[in-house]
Design goal:
The protein is α+β, with helices and mostly antiparallel strands and 171 residues long. The protein has four helices and eight strands, in the order E-E-H-E-E-E-E-E-H-E-H-H. 32% of the residues lie in helices and 24% in strands. The strands form three sheets. The chain has a four-stranded mixed β-sheet with strand order 3-6-7-8. Strands 1-2 form a two-stranded antiparallel sheet. Helix 1 packs antiparallel against helix 3. The longest helix has 17 residues. The protein starts with 12 loop residues before the first strand and ends in a 9-residue tail after the last helix. The relative contact order is 0.18.
Length: 171
């Protein structure tokens, strides 16, 4: 199973101390960052597959969704996979959806899984301008520092993963 079979080159970038695999992922985060807390790191889901169709041997694989987000107002949480629009009918997305939904159900998380395609990502004028500025900054080697102080990072992650909101965690 070749999960990283992209037809166009992705440009990784650093934003708020976390690596985005592509500028499309950056656009997605810019579209939701005022309404959602988000996490990029430590989202690996491990699953087994048969090595061959006739084998009972299992091989452990890893799938890593792009983001875990949680809405500040509603508390709704989603595992997010961001893909270019030309991925819309790829079989691998169905497999990722099944793996993620099984993982969520198995552990009893209050999350859902969603695939977001590039043509669904809409930026406000302010976010579009921020995106353009970030692209300029990336070309000269600058990046954005994390907006969450290290002292509050654990509380922020707890909110994203569990929906537990402390008075000390703010946007």
């Amino acid at each position: 199973m070749d999960i990283k079979n992209y037809t166009k080159r992705a440009y990784p970038c650093l934003y708020h101390g976390q690596w985005m695999d592509s500028l499309l992922e950056l656009r997605y985060i810019l579209s939701i960052e005022n309404t959602h807390a988000w996490q990029r790191d430590n989202l690996q889901i491990y699953f087994s597959v048969n090595k061959t169709t006739k084998s009972v041997e299992k091989e452990l694989r890893r799938y890593t969704p792009d983001f875990l987000i949680r809405n500040y107002q509603t508390g709704e949480a989603k595992l997010i996979e961001v893909k270019p629009k030309h991925f819309r009918n790829k079989r691998q997305l169905l497999l990722r959806k099944q793996i993620a939904e099984h993982f969520i159900e198995y552990f009893g998380y209050d999350w859902t899984f969603e695939i977001v395609f590039g043509d669904q990502i809409l930026l406000s004028e302010v976010a579009e301008e921020k995106y353009r500025q970030l692209i300029q900054d990336f070309t000269v080697g600058r990046h954005c520092p994390s907006p969450i102080p290290l002292s509050q990072r654990e509380l922020y992650i707890k909110f994203i993963r569990e929906g537990v909101l402390s008075a000390e965690v703010s946007k």
